[in-house]
């Protein structure tokens, strides 16, 4: 395969990233943009994505660059997440949610599916109190509301 | 029949019929009322946040604490995560905080869960999909307390467009969109007038006395259905449901896009129902009937509450259609074949049509733009079809239909002399888009149709018959009288003429794509010229120019006219001269 052409990206702080074209194409947003306007000498600005997050996103896309199943819908909720992806998601919640937002913005469906599934797994099979603890949720029901809620669920 | 009655006035129902929803109030549409539309859980749209912020008792948005770290995510993304959770996790999550209560109670999500897991096997509970699902999963689930406490749950301080939008679209109703009526309406229309003024030119019309005399008009009602066919199971979108259960659902649902009952097998599933209706005289010439029980799907009973309906589409196989309303009323909005409605996207050959929004959302977002197009001729045709009336939908027209109130209707698709050619062309050139038959019959439906067409002695059914009766020995041809034989011959000639033209056009298109010419194609063109189709050939510039401009071996003609396939104006004379010469040549050959 001939050398890939390269794309220049700029994160929100202005940091520049050079990536190969085929990695950029994992993002539907970038793919369509590049197809429409051709390759521009200048960098594509990504004001919504910080440097550290962009680094993480590029890491994911690079690891999966030769993955033949990359774009097929990952709809099997019950399917186990593979080892590498599991490790990849072992980050603090703030970073995880930044990754979700970035995957959403850049339109990288497999990364979106992976990160959302990770959050779903954090909710799975927990009690309301455990869920509140995990996500730092305030129990903001009034006592009346809480009674009804209780009744509703049981 | 009154023509401009407002759809939701509380007129007295005819004694024997009852609507299956009793509306207590008309939807309010003034600005003041729009802004005070109350979401059942007290959720407000985002815009209200800024207004409420000016009030002294403003307590802020509860979203931050209520979602904790999840507040970093948008409501839409949270909904995506919720779609990955099991139902029991959803219930637990709903007990953690106000916002999560609101998000996990979005009924549309529960509708998908119910249909995915239980298909049509559920019993409508408590007017919500959530309760329906939970009760179906666990018969011990107690729904009575919910009913009692529902009104008291108010999520104060929760501002969300995601949740407010679908409530809003459903609550606003159709009234703002029902004023325009520019479709012709006729009673006492003669068959000839119908063909000349509407069917041939392909123009919609509402036949106001079309179903007036049907027994269904006085007989059909919810009660009648439940009494006559108590165990009937009919098709609702992707699942089969018990009709009794469906009526309960339709009566209480607040879905933005209600589940819609659309069944093609109702004739068999409801014994005797076909006697309550008859095909109107305008639509009795139906050549697909020659295929008898092998014909593509063609008739449906349609039942649904207000807001149910169909988003923009063209009817299958280039057929024309008629749609008779028995009870209720429907709003129609239609565009001619060459005008794509706003908000609808399609690929080049229209094999894929996407409309990313629901019907109610479409009206909310796009209807206004259809009313003031640059070219006034691009305005859609709109009208309301009421009880006893029949809408004629010409082939190829884009149309969207919304029930304005509980509605029972019958619709059929057909192929008559006026649209035989278009259907033949569709089956011939768009084989992968053929529908209404099993997948393995799509490729060969044209040939199947042709065979049935030539073999059949079919004549239009007598008054009162709905089905084309398949008669024993009727295909032999022995029992036809002279008039019938003459008619049959005319039909066969019509088919052959259409077929030649379709083949010619189709090959010409292929040629232009390939950029070459074959001997045989030219022969068939000349052959057609011999048979006197010169006039048609001359007027069809597309077909010819592809053949001629490429030169060829057509018997010693010098193509000295020098026109290319892009020339339009010059071609008529030269073509005719060539044809004439060729005729002379071949007659001496």
Structure commentary:
The complex is a heterodimer of chains A (154) and B (589). By secondary structure, chain A is mostly helical. In chain A, 53% of the residues lie in helices and 8% in strands. Chain A has a single domain (6-142), classed as Potassium Channel Kv1.1, Chain A (2-Layer Sandwich). Chain A has helices spanning 21-24, 28-37, 51-63, 83-88, 93-106, 109-123, 128-135, 143-153, and strands spanning 6-10, 16-20, 44-45. In chain A, strands 2-1-3 form a three-stranded mixed sheet. In chain A, a hairpin with a 5-residue loop joins strand 1 (6-10) and strand 2 (16-20). In chain A, helix 3 crosses helix 5 (93-106) and helix 5 (93-106) packs antiparallel against helix 6. Chain B has 589 residues and is an alpha+beta fold. Chain B is built from 23 helices and 15 strands. In chain B, a hairpin with a 6-residue loop joins strand 10 and strand 11 (353-354). The radius of gyration of chain B is 29 Å and the shape is elongated. The A-B interface holds A 77, 93-94, 97-98, 100-101, 104, 112, 116-117, 119-120, 123-128, 131-132, 135-141, 144-145, 148-153 and B 62, 65-70, 72-73, 77, 80-81, 84-86, 89, 91-98, 100-101, 145-146, 149, 152-153.
User: pLDDT under 50 segments of chain A (min length 5)?
Assistant: 150-154
Termini gap of chain A: 61 Å
Structural class of chain A: mainly alpha
The side-by-side strand order for the widest beta sheet of chain B comes to 1-2-13-8-15-6-5
CATH homologous superfamily (4th level) name of chain A? Potassium Channel Kv1.1, Chain A
Number of helices of chain A: 8
Strands of the largest sheet of chain A, in order across it? Answer: 2-1-3
Q: Which percent range fits the helix content of chain B?
A: 25-40%
Indicate the percent of residues in helices of chain A.
Answer: 40-55%
What is the name of the CATH class of chain A?
A: Alpha Beta
Strand content of chain B: 5-15%
Helix and strand composition category of chain B: alpha+beta
Largest interface: A-B, 36 and 31 residues
- Bulk shape of chain B: elongated
The end-to-end distance of chain B, rounded to whole angstroms, is 68 Å
Largest beta-sheet characterization of chain B:
7 strands, mixed
What's the gyration radius of chain A in Å? 19 Å
- Give the averaged pLDDT of chain A, no decimals: 85
Can you summarize the main beta sheet of chain A?
3 strands, mixed
Number of strands of chain B: 15
Organism (chain B): Linnemannia hyalina
Region (Disordered) (chain B): 457-481, 528-589
Biased composition (Acidic residues) (chain B): 565-581
InterPro entries (chain B): Cupin_8, F-box-like_dom_sf, F-box_dom, JmjC_dom, JMJD6_ArgDemeth/LysHydrox
